[in-house]
Specification:
Number of strands: 11
Number of helices: 8
Radius of gyration: 17 Å
Oligomer: single chain
Strand order of the largest sheet: 3-2-1-11
Structural class: alpha/beta
Strand content: 15-25%
Distance between the termini: 5 Å
Shape: globular
C-alpha cells in the first residue's frame, strides 16, 4: 500500500483526478493524504467533496481555511464565494457539510511517523498538546454547537498561552492549524504575511523555523499555501497546491 500526500485542492476536481491518475492511485490498496482546502475558488468544489467522501478510508483529509469558510457560508455567517454556490444548492448539501465538519485538524500515523495538518503546529505545543487542543475544536465542529463556533470564529488571537479560554482559545487553535504561515521570533502569528521567505519582513519567519519547537521530532506534512520557496526544511514537507501536479509518496506499507 502506497501513501501519497497532496496539497490544497481548492475546488479543482479535474486537477485532483489527473494527478491521481498520473500516480496510478488505487483506492483499493493505496491511501491519499489531502492537506485540506477541498473547497475553494474552483468551480468543482461540489465534485471534490463528493469524490473524496466516496473514497472512504482510502483518503484522509484535514480541514483548511477555505473549508471552514464554506461551513461558515452555509451557516449564514459570511458571504459565499462563487465556488461554494453549487454545494449550497446541492440536494446532498447537508450530508456533505456534515461530513466536512467531521474532518480533523490534525492526522497522525504512528507507524508511518508522519503528521498531516493544513497550515502547521505552533512551536509552543508538544505533540500530545497538539492532538488534545485540535480535538477541542474538532469536537465542537462535529456536534450540535458548531454553529456557535462558526458565528464566533475570527482572527482575534495571534498568541498562544495556556490560560486562554472560550472563543479566543478555540479561535487560536483553529487558526494555527488552518491559517498559520509567518510569525515573529516570539511566536506571534501574522495573518497577512504570505509569499516567498526572501520577500518577507526580516522580523518574520515561517512557523516551522522557530527555535525550540516542542513538536520538532514530528515529520509534518502541510499545504504550502504561502508559497514559502524555502530550502532545507528539516522535518517538514510543504506541499504545493494540486494544480502543480505534485504528490509526495510518503511510504509503502
Amino acid at each position: 500500500m502506497a501513501v501519497y500526500a497532496i496539497g490544497s485542492i481548492g475546488g479543482n476536481f479535474q486537477a485532483l483526478r489527473t494527478l491521481l491518475d498520473q500516480i496510478g492511485f488505487d483506492p483499493a490498496s493505496d491511501r491519499a493524504w489531502l492537506a485540506g482546502n477541498l473547497a475553494g475558488d474552483g468551480e468543482q468544489t461540489l465534485e471534490v467533496l463528493r469524490f473524496v467522501k466516496s473514497l472512504g478510508k482510502s483518503a484522509v483529509s484535514v480541514l483548511g481555511d477555505r473549508d471552514l469558510q464554506l461551513l461558515s457560508a452555509a451557516a449564514g455567517f459570511c458571504e459565499p464565494i462563487a465556488g461554494f454556490e453549487p454545494v449550497l444548492a446541492a440536494p446532498d448539501r447537508d450530508e456533505l457539510l456534515k461530513w466536512l465538519r467531521q474532518r480533523g485538524l490534525i492526522h497522525h500515523d504512528a507507524k508511518l511517523n508522519y503528521t498531516l495538518v493544513h497550515a502547521g503546529i505552533p512551536a509552543e505545543w508538544s505533540f500530545s498538546q497538539a492532538i488534545t487542543f485540535a480535538y477541542e475544536v474538532e469536537s465542537v465542529l462535529s456536534q450540535s454547537q458548531y454553529r456557535a463556533f462558526l458565528e464566533n470564529h475570527r482572527q482575534d488571537q495571534s498568541r498562544w498561552h495556556a490560560k486562554l479560554r472560550g472563543w479566543k482559545r478555540l479561535n487560536f487553535i483553529a487558526n494555527a492549524c488552518i491559517r498559520m504561515k509567518y510569525c515573529n521570533a516570539a511566536g506571534k502569528l501574522d495573518f497577512s504575511a504570505s509569499g516567498p521567505v526572501a520577500e518577507q519582513n526580516p522580523e518574520l519567519m515561517p512557523w516551522y523555523r522557530l527555535a525550540d519547537r516542542q513538536a520538532g521530532q514530528l515529520r509534518i506534512v502541510f499545504a504550502d499555501d504561502a508559497g514559502f520557496q524555502d530550502q532545507d526544511c528539516c522535518g517538514v514537507y510543504p506541499l504545493p497546491a494540486v494544480c502543480a501536479q505534485i504528490a509526495v509518496r510518503l511510504a509503502d506499507r
